[in-house]
Amino acid sequence: MNKIAAIVASLALVGQAPPAVAQAGNAQHVQSLANIYALTDYALGANEGCDLFTLGAYRALAQLRLTVKSDLRRALKPEQLAKIASFDKGKSEWRGCLARAARPDPWKLIDSAKLVADALIAAPSKVSGEPKDCQVDGEYAALSKIEWSYPANAVLRHYVDAPRKAEFEALSKDFAAMIDAECKRTKYSALMQAGYESLLHSEDLLLMFQKGPGPKRVLTSAGTRVALRPLSLELGVWRSRRGGFTGSRLSAGLNVYRILDRADKDVVFFHLSRPGTFDPRGMMYITRTGRWVARMKSNIDELELRLSDGSRLPFTKQNGSGNTAVGAAEFTLPAVHQARLGRAADDHTATLAYRVRGKEWTEFLDIGRDPGVQKQKIGDIRASLAWANAPMPAKEDRQ
Predict the structure, then answer these.
(1) Of 255, 244, 323, 311, which Cα lies nearest the Cα of 285?
(2) Are residues 255 and 369 both part of a single domain?
(3) Which segment of 177-191, 251-265, 274-288, 345-359 scores lowest on mean pLDDT?
(4) Domain shared by 16 and 79, yes or no
(5) CA 281, 287, 292, 294: dihedral to nearest 10 degrees?
């Protein structure tokens, strides 16, 4: 980390200089780590209110912040680390997107953060060993050096004639050395995750743009798995996900996406399931404006949303075919119930229940082993919609 910290210490940190940490053992090194942490934390805070980073860069900043914070915790006291944190500052300054001409200093921070993120995405293609022998998180197979070249080339094109090309190359080279060290030590590197998810994102979008029948072209072995069900076929062109790439895999909690199309598209969804083989299953989608639409892979008769204050809000069935084992149905929440949901307190929770042929109501369960009733907090849904609806910078401000 010494080399990478020294390079990032020279990046523009306008108005974000962290407090002095000279009392730490290796003051210069710790100060450099503090600079990295301040930069990544600020950029992630800014990204809350402005759609600044696509999935790969977003994940790169999050992983680097986590790695550096772990190192800083061994060198600093909690109160010192708290003084360095810059997430709230970034979030406050970027409530909506800033104009580059009017606010050049915050934009310098974002440009530096993008440089660091791109360098981390490109790094796996520069490792000295065979990256296929080193694992990243996810269900897909490890990638060869040739496969790693795809996410690297996607960011490299931005630096061919760029003034900061030398910084980008130095950063990616030193990140590669860090990955080499991780892989040699544990056969696993969390620092490769950003490039990996950048590739999955690209593969997903590539599959969406291929029209017509027949086999679809993919770039890598990971793309072959994504091809089974590209998420972009349901959501359209998406830029980022709150959290890591999951594709269409069954996952607990809210799945929150930033979609390029600014119409009233689906931007949040969560899975509806029961553990039995023939029990109903499907997805609950929430659109930009907060409309709730359930698309079931089972033909259930009734669906209702239940709030923790005792309110029961029935959905309207739009269509249905087949049965609960093999079928389909779609439900929407009527406007009057949508308004009631809008008045619910942030700390209230919502559960979903269904009924077939007038039998007892049954609640959908969470994902995982021995799951309980699935509950979604109203405040979490509102925060997710706010994140999904963050504006993008003006065209003239993007680089």
Answers:
(1) 255
(2) yes
(3) 274-288
(4) yes
(5) -20
pTM: 0.91
pLDDT tens string 123-156 = 999 999 888 889 888 766 688 999 999 999 999 9
Q: State the pairing for strand pair 316-322/312-314.
A: unpaired
Say how far apart CA 80 and CA 198 lie, in whole Å: 33
Three-state secondary structure call for residue 355: strand
d(CA 311, CA 56): 41
Q: DSSP assignment of 264-320, as one string?
A: S-EEEEEEEB-SSTTS--EEEEEETT--EEEEESS--SEEEEEETTS-EEEPEEEEE
Position with higher pLDDT, 193 vs 399: 193
169 and 60 in a common domain: yes
Quickly state the pLDDT bin for 33 (edges 50, 70, 90): confident
pLDDT 10s digits, 95-122: 989 999 999 999 999 999 999 999 999 9
CATH number, domain with residue 264:
2.60.40
Structure letter (DSSP) for residue 389? T
Number of domains observed in the structure of the chain = 2
Going through the chain in order, the beta strands assigned E by DSSP cover: 238-241, 255-259, 266-272, 282-287, 292-296, 302-307, 312-314, 316-322, 327-332, 349-355, 362-363, 376-377
Tokens of 51: 């759609």
Q: DSSP letters of 10-54?
A: TS--TT-PPPP-TTSSSHHHHHHHHHHHHHHHHHHHHHHHS----
